[in-house]
Amino acid sequence: MIMGYVDGIPFQRYDSERRRMEPLTPWMAAGAEPGYWDRQTQISEKTRLVDAENLEIARGRYNWSGGLHTLQRLYGCDLLSDGSVRGSHQDGIDGRDFISFELGSGSFVVADGAAQPTKRKWESDGITVDYWIHYLENICPEWLWKYVGYGREVLERKEPPDVHVSGKEEHGILTLSCHAYGFYPGTIGINWLKGDELRDQ
């Protein structure tokens, strides 16, 4: 399965049963340019085949005799407020870290000895490092801007938090708890005030 997300919102999906990349939001269905879904389906199908081969390689490295195993890949980019890009690529196997790419150093970091041959191959083939640098610094931000453009109305909305404060008193000491939920975008700052005084806790 392949899922595409923007700001935590799933907007496209491919799975091996349907074998088709499909929109998950109205804004993506309406915004995608002609041919987009066919191209993404082809890319996803190639990825599925390569990942099946990679799982077979992992089977040998981990001496698996059978069973169901999963390869997870998480990659993407963040467009920072100063105009720079932060990109990342991580692979995991069966829920454990396997290998990741450090954009700043242009090198792969292994989380497991079984990933060492992969690191050597990818760093010496003259293609993989250059591909991920180019993808994370150029292609990913270009597409992210397009996706944000398609869903601007939804993605740039502002929803204030619902806030609930409760208190519990024990031995003459009042302990307050604050729960905030339902807000968008997903990062907010919350401060305690006592009168006009800002409190650390």
Automatic annotation (TrEMBL):
Record-linked Pfam families: MHC_I
Gene Ontology CC terms, in alphabetical order: external side of plasma membrane; extracellular space; MHC class I protein complex
Biological process (GO), any one: immune response
Topology of this chain in the membrane: Single-pass type I membrane protein
SUPFAM superfamilies hit by this protein: Immunoglobulin, MHC antigen-recognition domain
Source taxon at top rank: Eukaryota
Keywords noted in UniProt: Disulfide bond, Glycoprotein, Immunity, Membrane, MHC I, Signal, Transmembrane, Transmembrane helix
Record-annotated Ig-like domain positions: 161-201
InterPro entries (UniProt xref): Ig-like_dom, Ig-like_dom_sf, Ig-like_fold, MHC_class-I_related, MHC_I-like_Ag-recog, MHC_I-like_Ag-recog_sf, MHC_I/II-like_Ag-recog, MHC_I_a_a1/a2
Subcellular location: Membrane
Location, primary (coarse class): membrane
Family, similarity comment: Belongs to the MHC class I family.
Protein name from the UniProt record: Class I histocompatibility antigen, F10 alpha chain-like
Organism listed in the record: Lepidothrix coronata
